Amino acid sequence: MNSSGLHFVTAFPENIAHYHPSKAENIIEITSVEGNAKVIIQNSSGMLIKEFELKKTWKEYTIIPSQLELQRNQISNKTVRITSDKLINVRTFHRKNGSIQTSLLKASDKLGKLYKIPPMPSKIAEQSLRPSEVPEAAPFTVIVINNSAKNNVTWKGDTVVMQEVSLQPFNLAQFWMSKDVTYEVEASEPVSVLFGHPCTTVFNCTCGMLVTPLDPVSQTKLNFFIPPDFTTNGEDEASLLIADQGSPLPYDPNRPAVKSVGSVVFHRPGLLLNIIPEEDFATCFRINIYPKKPKFTNTKAVLVVHKDHKDLVYNRRVPLSGQEWNDIKTTHYVSKTVPLTEWNNVFWSPKAMMVYHIGYQGTIMFGNPAPIISKYTSLKGCVMTPEVVNMGDVAMGWRESIQYCKNLGLDLASMDGTEMRFLAPKLHAMNETLMQVWIGFRRSSLTGEWYRLNKTKIENTHWGEGEPGEPEAGQCAMMSLDPDKDFGWSDESCCTAAVPLCYKDPLVFLN
């Protein structure tokens, strides 16, 4: 789903990572999607933390006051609200020297009321104690963050109600897990849910916190693919935490695809990564790196795309075609790791794919799904506002078709052949009985050369077999909507009656 939104609410779990005397830093990264976004960051009671304006594609980092970090009280008002008048993406950093966690937040309108909780990783579950005892070995925590309405939250274990709490707007509740129990959260109003641990042992007597947002329960089982790129130098330590399974599943490179109605979380030491289902793949992603705070290097993008579309993937204007991809076994998908060297990276494809942002602190991985900024498809780049397509319902001549489209504020379609061929299957799906439409190409009566109505140079055409004929065969162009004719073009008399194809270009983020 699109990561952009206008309203967000989050919290910063207790970070007791062992890096004394370093202090924990809690940071919010906000990136604008549209221009001149006015952003306000407040605490739960509305007290202002920061207010600023962001130009398009700019980003801003805000350090959250340390007193807003959660303690172990079950009910708390230590939440942070982010609002904007234009679409933004929001990411959080939880940092304490060698311990870093990053999370991509969901906007308030994309939250749910029912969440199934993944199982704890096995090694940590074996150390599980009550939260009042040794904090490094305490159980995993589930943090339920309320939005703007009063809410009733039910905490269930093995389908049995274990606890019920009432939450005021922008308050939260914390629940602690036990080994071998399957949990879920049900609320009367939408909530966001964080899943994590304050400090898990990593190596050399140090520990780092783990945290990731979870996805609400879906109506059907969704498909999740785990790219082999996640397991580099750590395949034996990797596991999958699947929301509707009672125990962790060791990562199997020969079976990297799973199904679930809830979250699937990839785990390896130092990392909890919420996997995005195939059904939520998108076409355009943005990754920012080299922020002033926190500063880290060695960050990469991991791309997942259908193997038939791997030559249609770009980073800004640079195609990734011809590069090596890894098979995700048992699926039709492939993956690739791309080192990030630019501060602003825009990965896009006219076909749906998924991108993750992965970083390294020494040998420890951290990361999050890359922010999605568009799900619309185009051969031009990242589409912010989709194209407008109108096929008239009355057949008319070519000249009359031009005026018909102008009356709608559109133009008779005159994209090049590649773009027209990309659009044609969509048109066929819209009206399977319509066989041909006028398009904005005409033959010059003076020279016999074909030209576009929009006066741009013709780069590609898509003439049908034996087309176009001699000048006397026809002066204007039609496009077939018959898949059996490969949507080819033909030249026709401009007085022939046909339905016009009216079109307006999409608003593209990346030109």
TrEMBL record:
CDD domains given for it?
CLECT (cd00037)
Q: Which PROSITE patterns match?
A: C_TYPE_LECTIN_2
Which Pfam family, giving just one, matches this sequence? Lectin_C
**Which species is the source of this protein?**
Muraenolepis orangiensis
- Name the InterPro entries for this protein: C-type_lectin-like, C-type_lectin-like/link_sf, CTDL_fold, IgGFc-bd_N
Domain C-type lectin, residue spans: 398-503
Identification of the protein by name: C-type lectin domain-containing protein
As given in the record, the signal peptide range reads none
Stretches assigned to coiled coil:
none
